[in-house]
C-alpha cells in the first residue's frame, strides 16, 4: 500500500498540524492519531492532538495519550489553535464526526484539510483525501505513511499502531484480518510493541462496575432469528457507576454463540434517544442501514443515533435488516 504523493508532500512541506479524530474515540482513532503526531514531531513539525472527548481510561496505556486535548482543555491550555492552519482528520472523513462544528472551536479556519480514513461511509470533506475502506484500520494507513516519510518506527509509535490494528480487527478475529495485517503487526512487534502486554491492557483490565454492567446487558438479550438485540439504559449506568466508555465491544459479545449473524446494541443517551451499534457477519452491509439514520461506518461494523420509542426503533431496525439482507425471522 502506498499513500498518495499529495498527502506525503503535504506532510513534508507544511507545519502546524491540527490532528483531530472522531467522537467517542476508540483504539484505532487514538493509536493512529498519536502515531501520526509522533511522526510529525520527529520531523520537527508542530502538531496538536485533539478530540472532543477525553481518552477513555482503558486506553491511557497508549504512549502519548496525555497529549490529547479536548475542546475544553485546549481553550484553557494557552495554546492558540488558530495558528494551526493544516487540519488532518484521522479515522473519520467528515468534520461533523468530530463535533467541532457545534463547539467553541467552530470559528477555526484552515488553509488545507486532509483526511486519512478507512470507513465505507464516505463524505466529500477534505482537500486531500486518502480513504481506503478495504484496509482493516487507519493504523495500517499511518504505518505506511510513516514508512513513506522515511522515519523509523519508534517503540511508542509501534505500540499505538499495533493497538489500533488489534482493536479494529477484533484481536485478529474479524474478516478484515489479511496477510498484510499480520505482516505489519509482526513488524510492529519487532519495533517494540509487546502483543501480550497490549492484549492485557485492552482486554483484561475491566473494573468491577464494568463487569456488573456487562451482566445486566446480557440479561437484556433478545433473539430474533439470527439477530440479537441488547440494551443499555441510563439507569444501568447509575446502578453500576459506569459510563459509555465502559461499553466498548459489548455489541460483539453475542458472536461467542454460533448462530447470530447480526448484533445490535441500543445505548440510551436521553429520553427516547439512542446510540445504535450494529455488527454483522459475511456480506450483510450494516453501514447502509446506519446511513439511513445519518450514521455510517464499515460493512460489518456501523453506528448511528436514533430518536424515538425503543420498541419502535427495534421493530424498524429488524424490518430494515429483513428487507435489506433477507435476515431470517
Descriptive notes:
This protein has 329 residues and is α/β, with parallel strands linked by helices. The chain has helices at 5-13, 27-42, 71-75, 138-148, 155-168, 179-190, 195-203, 208-218, 234-240, 286-291, 310-325, and strands at 17-21, 47-50, 68-69, 86-90, 112-117, 128-131, 222-224, 227-232, 262-270, 273-280, 296-297, 301-307. The model has no long low-confidence stretch (mean pLDDT 94). The longest helix is centred in the N-terminal third of the chain and has 16 residues, at 27-42. The strands form 2 sheets. It has a 6-stranded parallel β-sheet. A 6-stranded mixed β-sheet has the order 7-8-9-10-12-11, sandwiched between helices. It is globular, with a radius of gyration of 20 Å. It has 11 helices and 12 strands. The chain starts with a helix and ends with a helix. Helices cover 35% and strands 19% of the residues.
How much helix is in the residues? Answer: 25-40%
Question: Kindly, what is the distance between the CA atoms of the first and last residues, rounded to a whole number of angstroms?
Answer: 41 Å
Rg result: 20 Å
Helix-strand category: alpha/beta
Please report the total strand number as a whole number.
12
Biggest beta sheet summary: 6 strands, parallel
In terms of per-residue confidence, which ranges show pLDDT below 50 for 5 or more consecutive residues?
none
Strand content: 15-25%
The arrangement of helices and strands along the chain is HEHEEHEEEHHHHHEEHEEHEEH
Strand order of the largest sheet: 3-2-1-4-5-6
Mean pLDDT: 94
Shape, please? globular
Discrete helix count:
11
Amino acid at each position: 500500500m502506498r499513500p498518495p504523493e499529495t498527502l506525503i508532500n503535504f506532510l513534508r512541506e507544511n507545519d502546524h498540524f491540527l490532528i483531530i479524530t472522531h467522537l467517542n474515540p476508540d483504539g484505532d482513532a487514538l493509536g493512529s492519531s498519536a502515531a501520526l503526531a509522533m511522526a510529525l514531531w520527529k520531523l520537527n513539525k508542530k502538531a496538536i492532538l485533539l478530540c472532543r472527548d477525553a481518552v477513555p481510561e482503558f486506553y491511557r496505556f497508549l504512549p502519548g495519550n496525555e497529549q490529547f486535548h479536548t475542546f475544553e482543555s485546549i481553550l484553557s491550555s494557552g495554546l492558540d489553535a488558530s495558528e494551526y492552519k493544516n487540519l488532518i482528520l484521522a479515522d473519520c472523513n467528515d468534520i461533523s464526526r468530530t463535533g467541532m462544528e457545534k463547539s467553541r472551536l467552530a470559528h477555526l479556519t484552515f488553509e488545507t484539510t486532509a483526511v486519512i480514513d478507512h470507513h465505507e461511509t464516505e463524505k466529500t470533506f477534505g482537500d486531500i483525501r486518502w480513504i481506503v475502506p478495504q484496509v482493516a484500520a487507519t493504523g495500517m494507513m499511518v504505518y505506511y505513511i510513516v514508512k513513506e516519510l522515511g522515519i523509523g518506527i519508534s517503540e511508542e509509535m509501534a505500540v499505538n499502531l499495533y493497538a489500533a490494528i488489534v482493536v479494529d480487527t477484533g484481536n485478529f478475529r474479524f474478516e478484515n484480518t489479511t496477510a498484510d495485517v499480520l505482516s505489519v503487526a509482526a513488524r510492529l512487534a519487532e519495533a517494540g510493541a509487546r502483543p501480550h502486554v497490549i492484549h492485557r491492557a485492552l482486554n483484561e483490565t475491566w473494573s468491577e462496575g464494568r463487569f456488573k454492567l456487562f451482566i445486566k446487558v446480557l440479561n437484556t438479550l433478545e433473539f430474533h432469528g439470527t439477530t440479537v438485540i441488547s440494551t443499555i439504559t441510563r439507569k444501568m449506568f447509575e446502578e453500576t457507576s459506569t459510563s459509555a466508555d465502559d461499553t466498548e465491544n459489548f455489541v460483539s459479545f453475542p458472536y461467542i454463540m454460533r448462530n447470530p449473524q447480526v448484533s445490535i446494541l441500543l445505548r440510551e443517551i436521553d429520553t427516547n434517544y439512542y446510540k445504535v451499534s450494529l455488527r454483522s457477519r459475511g456480506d450483510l452491509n450494516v453501514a447502509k442501514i446506519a446511513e439511513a439514520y445519518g450514521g455510517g461506518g464499515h460493512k460489518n461494523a456501523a453506528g448511528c443515533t436514533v430518536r424515538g420509542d425503543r420498541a419502535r426503533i427495534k421493530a424498524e431496525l429488524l424490518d430494515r435488516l429483513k428487507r435489506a439482507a433477507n435476515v431470517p425471522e
